[in-house]
Amino acid sequence: MSILTIVARYLHCIIKKTGIYYIIMRQIYYVIRTLLRGRSSNVVKVISLGLGLTMSILLFARVAFEQSFDKCFKDYENLYQVFSIFTMNGEQLEPQDQNCGPVAGAILENFPKEVEAATSYCLWVNDPLYHGSVRFEVRKLAADSLFFQTMGIEVLSGTPVKDLAQKDVVYLSDRLARKMFDTENPIGKVISYSKEIELTVKGTYADIPENATVRPEAVISLPSIWSRKWGNYSWRGGDSWLAFIRFRPGADKSVVNARIDAMIQKYRPAEDQKVVGYTAFVKPIRDVYRDNKDVRRMRNIMTILGITILFIASLNYVLISVSSLSYRAKAVGVHKCNGAGNMTILSMFLWETAIIILFALILMGLILLNFQDFFEDTAAVKLSALFSLDRIWVPLLTVVVLFVVGGVLPGRLFARIPVTQVFRRYTEGKKGWKRPLLFIQFAGVAFICGLMYVVMMQYYYILNKDLGYNPKRVVVANASFGEEEKGNYALNVFRNMPYVESVSSATYHPVYGYSGTIINDESGQSLFSSRYCSVPDDYPKMMGMVLKEGRMPRGDDETVVNETFAEWMHWGNNILNRTVYNSGYVCKVVGVMKDYRIGSFTSPQQPLLLMHTKRFGDCIHVRLKEPFAENLLKLNKEMESAFPDKTIEFRSMQQMIKENYNSVRVFSNATMLAAITMFFVMLMGLIGYTTDEVRRRSKEIAIRKVNGSEATGILELLVKDVLYVAVVAVLIGVVAAWYVNGMWMDLFAEHVPLSWAAYLLIAIANLAVIVACVLWKSWKIANENPVNSIKSE
Q: Where is each MacB-like periplasmic core domain found (predicted)?
């Protein structure tokens, strides 16, 4: 016995035994009886609405999550981030969040009336933390003593203004402190950074939620890296510091941006001002993430997807409901004969919609519960964060919109059915409702299919495109050995490993990109910023890079440039023996390297200088023999015994490349899931429409067959009826997909080659599925004996 049957009998008993004819209870009773009579169609409604709600609510919740970034910081409206703008060769570069180290402190010093606090921090502390032998891979940064005061992060214990001014001090988030020390007091405990630096825990701070751009689990004092001469904290280059300022309440924030250029000129050396122009500005932290062009573009696309899925699901519900008019009209007439008015019929249908949506929400809950890991990976955020109390309005508003669209529109149609329908067979011949609903569904599915195809193709294109080097079986790890003798010893250790095919090193690896340097002309005027990397002679061969002409550098006064560098310098084909002026260094070009990808395909190809080094270390590159996974485990295990005083952990370069495109993969999965959902919903709506059309026109079809029409003619009649709607709708959907794909493809510097033929095939595939569905549902009546249809009238 179903739940609905039990509820219906319970309500009936209340009405019968108590004699209390409450209108609402009676309406619910009749609604449940109606739902029990139409189990199959209601199951379809629940499934389609459940799938549609799941995807649309997830998308809308993700958009709301994006909009809520950085509201977790205290008085976030007064928290501003510093951005730098460099000018080279008369051309102003794009603003960047990487700044010269002293800029934040200078703002605090020069604007005491407006600015309350300022901080600078860096992200170079990437190695793991250790508590004893237990390793913790967490986000860390090195910051000055005003970090917590500036950011507005609650400090639970300690005095950061005093503590972070000292060397080898660390503050832990409450979450990390509990992981490390359980219920023990962490204050005064000593942990290790990369097994090389001992850090004393001097304080803890409140956990920072996921929707924050600054979210460290540990904050190391800035003197810890200054004392070891890490980084460049000066006005002369070293633009790798993130900086924030906090305005005083009610301060005029425009004053800083108006006078910051004059302030910077006071501090910058005069000779640097002649070479590179530099200024800065501050921007509210709430606008930094939201106004990012990539974030904004993805937010718009997710909003379009969410609206499309929600309306297709709700209009599919409307279509199935409207298609049932022909066989529910008599029941409505009976209710009206018993005194029910239009509002009563409407309210009954609204109750029916509410019950269907309730079961759809239950289905959505089961889906999210059973596939939580998948959805969290797709949304790139935990479901608990997506549906936090301050964003619970998102699913509630989505449900309200669905209820209004799915309940009111067909409810009004049912309410208008005249009472005379109880005395005759209802023949609902108008298609004014059905065809527009079908049109929207066909267009929406064609749109999402076109989007899914291009997104997936672009993802696999950038993942498999030639990089200009061979990352297969290459693993990398950061390690510094100091003296040349120690580096040579380490090199021999790797070469003697039986599972190592080849080994080399460089200052960086190309997956995440290289550091930059200013290229000048003969007069010292800056031309552009180039990437640079120091490598030994065997590095290009080991990595599968192509030296087009010349040789590798053999000293500090020689360099190899890539093709893009030569192009930017306008050297033509005569490249060798040219002179490069590199931030005070003069080098002769002795070779030309074929372009290889630096960073990801989201950025254009960059110019590159390859310098010479004999020292082994910094970023170790090892190409392993097969079996790769097994040998990688062996290598990392042997590192613990070969270099017990260091943390050397190798990672697969191919895996790092995949992680570079994780956001693309996530979006690809989301569009594929959305396409499957919408396709399934559309098919259910089309099946309902075709079934109703076959039922409504059964007598017409029988008469046509009696008059000599063949089954193929009947099928052609029904297919044409749907194709009149489908062809235009699919074309519009495909054109919309082409437009949105153009927005999305702007994220990349390299695009998968696509022609109009791809979109044409998508349109044909959609139409083929639609025709196949109509043929499947029409086949029986087109081939059955017409006498059966006429006898049933």
A: 47-262, 493-626
How far is it, in rounded angstroms, from Cα 421 to Cα 696? 16
Token pair belonging to 367 = 């889906």
* Distance separating alpha carbons of residues 562 and 567, to the nearest angstrom: 9
Helix 325-337 / helix 23-37 crossing angle, nearest 10 deg: 150
CB 586 within 8 A of CB 557: yes
**pLDDT, averaged in runs of 10, over the chain (793 residues):** 53 48 55 59 82 91 91 94 88 88 94 95 90 91 96 95 95 96 93 91 95 94 90 83 95 93 88 81 93 85 88 81 63 59 69 85 92 83 87 92 82 63 49 74 90 92 93 93 86 94 94 88 85 94 95 93 95 93 87 94 92 92 95 93 87 93 85 85 79 72 69 78 90 93 87 90 93 83 61 53
Pairwise CA distance, residues 171 & 53, whole Å: 43
Please check whether residue 205 is in contact with residue 170, taking contact to mean a CB–CB distance below 8 angstroms. Answer: no
Length of the chain: 793
Say if strands 608-612 and 526-535 run parallel, antiparallel, or are unpaired.
Answer: parallel
- Cα 785 from Cα 788, distance rounded (Å): 6
Q: Give the pair of three-digit tokens for residue 467.
A: 């990089």
CA-closest candidate to residue 581, choices 564, 598, 565, 604: 565
- Return left, alpha or beta for 195; rule: phi > 0 is left, psi -120 to 50 is alpha, else beta: left
For residues 237 and 583, the answer to whether their CB atoms sit within 8 Å is: yes
User: Please, how many CA atoms are within 13 Å of residue 289, restricted to the half-sphere of its CB?
Assistant: 15
Give the pLDDT of residue 231: 83
DSSP states of 349-385: HHHHHHHHHHHHHHHHHHHHHHTHHHHHHHHTS-HHH
Q: State how far the Cα of 647 lies from the Cα of 129, in Å rounded to an integer.
A: 10
CA distances from 109 to 144, 154, 450, 589 (A): 15, 24, 55, 45
8 Å CB contact between 749 and 603: yes
Whether the full predicted model's pTM is greater than 0.90, yes or no, is no
**DSSP characters for 715-740?**
HHHHHHHHHHHHHHHHHHHHHHHHHH
Q: Round to whole Å and give the CA distance between 685 and 318.
A: 9
Other Cβ atoms closer than 10 A to 382? 13
- The pLDDT score that the predictor gives to residue 275 is 77
Residue 496: predicted pLDDT: 93
Q: Which residue has the tokens 């930059």?
A: 516
- Rounded Cα distance, 606 and 567, in Å: 11
Tokens of 663: 């956001």
Tell me the backbone φ, ψ of residue 544, rounded to 5 degrees: 75, 25
Cα–Cα distances in angstroms (integers) from residue 734 to residues 281, 436, 721, in the given order? 43, 18, 21
